[in-house]
Amino acid sequence: MLPRIRNNAWKQVRLSSTSRHLATEIPTSPEPPSPLAALPTSVLLRSIFINSITSKPYLLTPSLWVLSKLSNPGRFMPSIDNNVLLKCILKPTFYKQFCAGETGAETQATMKHMKEMGFRGTILTYAKEIVFDHATGAQHGLGVKTSEGVNAEWCESIEAWRAGTVNTVELLGEGDQLAVKLTGAGALVTKAFTENKLPPQQMMDALNEISTKCKERGAYILIDAESQHFQWGIMLVSMYLMKKYNTDGIATIYNTYQAYLKSTPSTLAKHLTAAAEEKFTLGLKLVRGAYMGSDERCLIHDTKKNTDDAYNCIAQGALRQEIGEFGAKNGRAFPSVNLLLASHNKDSVVAAHHLHQSRLRANLPTVPVKFAQLQGMSDEVSFGLLQLKDGTSSAPEVYKCSTWGTFGECLAYLVRRALENRDAASRTQDEYAALKSEAWRRMRSVF
């Protein structure tokens, strides 16, 4: 019995050795790198710290309260820019996570770094705006006065907005984008918007100057959606500019459409009709929506799923060139459209990219598409998109959206961004888990 046992054991050893040998010869596909592997370690650690707060409601709520107070200092509280201690704490953490810089040099350095990490460019924001709270009927100015003389021939607020926006344009390179909030030009402009009129000529002259400068630089303008109290006037401006500057098959001007509004499909249908009849390219920037806390609730879809379905329907309809009667069998020809999908929803943007690439490979009609996420947020989504390049498809054009200016100038904007994203707890927790997983991966590779 003993020799037989030894013989069987030897067979097992030889089988095990052969299996190991075969395993070394059979090629295995390498595990794709983590999307966050491209994130510098200093940014990764800062992101973990920030997300450790934003992913926990019991930490986020009091933090937002403190930041809100700092953004509106009273008579007994100095401006954040004059508070050396607080600025030393907040600038290298909160500010640097979400903002490009306090000066032009800092901002351009950040934009250069974005391109080095693989992004097509930066969407740079001039952050002043006025928000209308439907519940209270009050206007809240973020870096801008909410009231001034309504008969002035020359408005100081419009000039300040023009100068600040022109300074922002000077920082842009070819392919970069400028995001503007038109209510940041002050009360004369918002008064016109509430009356569903174009703003004063001084504002229109400023917009033409800015549009011309951007077109000359090969940059683009994204006219942000704002409170519905002002939105119909804002869309008058965006349509006027698109008709004037989007005439060569390229959208220099984009209007923003909010998928959470029940009215968006009918609004988009009207704008597609205008683009078809007046022969201009419609710049379609699609977002889910950011003013749920201040707009009338009845204007907004009842559930998040309804909003998600609306977003995906518009995005994929544009990529298929089939929206309503446009592109339908026996319907109207689809007009010229350029698409920008601004979303932190991984499923939406990945599905859109795959649809776009599949139509290109099949020689089916589609539209140019770009993607965008906020700086400091959803890095796993952004870098994950950049990884989708393969031998048969090009990498998607991905942008990071940021703001620039002093901490005091940007703080109100940052607080509102945090407030509008505070309900996305599950996404924030997923991002926090991904960041920690990447940190552990790097530690294991060292030890």
TrEMBL record:
It catalyses: L-proline + a quinone = (S)-1-pyrroline-5-carboxylate + a quinol + H(+). The keyword Transmembrane does not apply. SUPFAM superfamilies: FAD-linked oxidoreductase. One of its GO terms (biological process) is L-proline catabolic process to L-glutamate. Its EC number is 1.5.5.2. Its cofactor is FAD. Residues 110-429 form the Proline dehydrogenase domain. Belongs to the proline oxidase family. This is Proline dehydrogenase. It comes from Cylindrodendrum hubeiense.
